[in-house]
Sequence to fold (249 residues):
Amino acid sequence: MYKDVVCGLGEIGLPIYRIISKVFPVEGYDIDSSLIPKSKNNFNSYKVRFLHVCIPFNKNFIYNVMNLEKKFSPKSIVIHSTIKPGTTDSLQKKLKIPVIFSATRGVHKRMQSDLKKYTKFFALQNKNSTSKLASQNFSQLMKKSKIKSKQMSNPKTLELAKIICDTSYYGWLINYSQMSKIIAEKHGVDYDEMWSFSDEIHKFLGNRPKMFPGFIGGHCVIPNLELIDESSLNQISEINNMFKKFLKK
Fold:
């Protein structure tokens, strides 16, 4: 008999655990034992199929994943965390089992429903028969969990997509609202009235989104910039800090 194990029961891991537990035997694991859901099932004799990694990325991420691999001896690993581009490849070179990267999309406070709203993209570095089987099993798990899935050609494309096309792009949009708010205040005009000029353009073309001009906090947009060495994106943080000073005034 097989089971899955979800490691890291935070804002991503716990929703994934809850969804998978409805269709497949699964255990939860976290360094904070109080977060581990109590189970009436005895999984001691079960082998681990997928080790779902949902821990935060840091400089010890690869080391931590390898320790988890030794602890649970899974047939495959699925990384749901947002990671530095190239991490999946680095892990795959150190491990014999398939390593899948599957970026997570959604708002944390409604992650369980958002996981079923968005397609769960995934990718593997290796193209051998073992990886192909892992890919098929993951696709089947997502289908049973009522989550759409789609495979990308390689992990780095998906690692970059999560940072460049999701969180950083969102940051750019907020940046523009921040700058336009500062300009509106400088000239003594109403921000919302000024932006009403673009309402119909956005309605027909979909390319003039009006964002709320707030300070970018949280642990996604700004922290994710540190995962990619691109100086061109530093302006997102710089403009955000400039807006913070504006708010204080």
The chain has a mean pLDDT of 95.
